[in-house]
Design a protein that fits this description.
With 400 residues, this protein is of the alpha/beta class. The chain is 26% helix and 28% strand. The chain is built from 11 helices and 18 strands. A 9-stranded mixed sheet has the order 11-10-12-13-18-17-16-14-15, with helices on both faces. A 7-stranded mixed β-barrel has the order 1-2-8-6-4-3-9, surrounded by 4 helices. The chain starts with 14 loop residues before the first strand and ends with a helix.
């Protein structure tokens, strides 16, 4: 039979989290009811739960918020990072029933129900986080309502083993394909006024804005916002766009977005990125998954971390200046430092575990970071990297 760990004796339990190792956490149902499978992860962000819920990088994952109170400022549509929630499930210690904020438009529980997100509250999220840190990220299942009765009330040893087998076999696949905007879909943001045009140069009309291709692998909306703040004209293209088509659009630079899943799974995209790199003249800026796939296209290797980096308090050191920045992160894979070729210099390193947090390429105008310089709701320490990208495009344009 399934072993049971009860952390909340005395509360009325109508939802359960079952981990792949057989541990069961009992709590209360939030959001939609039913059952859901996913990779159970934790994020340490003290704010920004709306951005977490709508970040496509969380596709396929059951997300645990380590901060004990979630939902206190309600739901604010303008803070969404995409058109919907992508998480497979949601875990909180306490869900606020009465949010208070002048921007609040609705309650978080209503949002979870509307999005079909199955969640659980009232469990010991500290104990769960410790288990994931010690054992590593593992698959899990949230069951509630009639599904809880089906799986737990009448379970036999045979059913239990079949259930654990089902949980353990879950795998996140074709994630980028699932979250990327499709060809012809409207960009999630309306264009803003262009205020910082490129300098005039050969083949470019005077005062023309920098044209950036945002290659969408599950892009957070704030990447586009940060580019448009700096006067860039942004064209969003889906994950399966070819290098030939991108080059035919004559951009001034390419932004490789964040996204979910195993970077090495995206063989076709990596080959197209390699073709762009082989041209060797177009400025490239990669973030998170874009950073990883750019590295793979340049001959590096990636591997899965024990429990990943997720939250808004990760310290990263600039290897050139020694300055430490606090960054927002959300990833389960990392580029292996031992695989970096001579033309790939590590520009940022994680202070906690010394993993690669940034790469600058010396043979082409390209750089990338593992963390999120566009972080919303913060921190904003590394926002200057967008200015670096703009300067790179301006210098490249002036040299044409």
């Amino acid at each position: 039979m399934l072993p049971v760990n009860i952390f909340n004796k005395g509360i009325m339990c109508n939802a359960y989290l079952i981990l792949a190792d057989g541990t069961i956490y009992e709590g209360r149902s939030i959001g939609a009811t039913g059952s859901t499978l996913g990779e159970t992860v934790f994020t340490t962000g003290m704010t920004g739960y709306l951005e977490t819920l709508t970040d496509p990088s969380y596709y396929g994952q059951i997300v645990t918020q380590t901060f004990p109170l979630i939902g206190n400022y309600g739901v604010i549509n303008e803070d969404f990072e995409s058109k919907q929630s992508w998480v497979r499930g949601y875990i909180v210690r306490e869900l606020c029933d009465e949010p208070s904020n002048f921007r609040c438009q609705s309650k978080l529980n209503d949002f979870l129900k509307a999005q079909g997100i199955i969640g659980i509250c009232g469990i010991d999220t500290r104990a769960l986080t410790k288990r994931l840190r010690e054992s590593g990220v593992m698959n899990g299942m949230i069951v509630s309502g009639k599904e809880a009765e089906k799986y737990l009330t009448r379970h036999s040893e045979l059913v239990s083993e079949l259930l654990l087998k089902k949980i353990r076999e879950y795998k996140i696949e074709r994630a980028v394909e699932k979250v990327s905007n499709k060809e012809g879909e409207v960009s999630p943001l309306a264009p803003t006024s262009l205020v910082a045009p490129l300098s005039a140069g050969a083949g470019c009309p005077r005062n023309a804005p920098a044209h950036v291709i945002l290659w969408d692998f599950g892009a957070k909306a704030n990447i586009q916002r940060e580019l448009e703040k700096r006067g860039c004209k942004v064209t969003v293209v889906p994950y399966d766009t070819t290098a030939e088509k991108i080059l035919s659009m004559k951009p001034n630079g390419i932004m490789l977005s964040n996204g979910p899943g195993d970077p090495a799974e995206n063989v076709g995209i990596i080959n197209e990125i390699k073709k762009i790199c082989d041209v060797g003249t177009l400025p490239i800026f990669g973030i998170c998954l874009g950073h990883q796939m750019l590295a793979l296209a340049r001959g590096c290797k990636t591997s899965k971390l024990k429990y990943g980096h997720r939250g808004g308090n990760h310290p990263c050191k600039d290897t050139l200046t020694g300055r430490v920045y606090i960054t927002s992160q959300n990833h389960g894979y990392a580029v292996e430092s031992s695989s970096l070729p001579d033309f790939a210099k590590m520009s940022f390193v994680n202070v906690n575990d010394e993993t690669v947090e940034g790469i600058t390429y010396t043979d082409i105008p390209a750089f990338s970071v593992q963390f999120h310089p566009e972080a919303c709701g913060g921190p904003h320490d590394t926002n200057f990297l967008f200015d670096r990208f703009l300067k790179m495009m301006e210098e490249n344009h002036a040299a044409e």
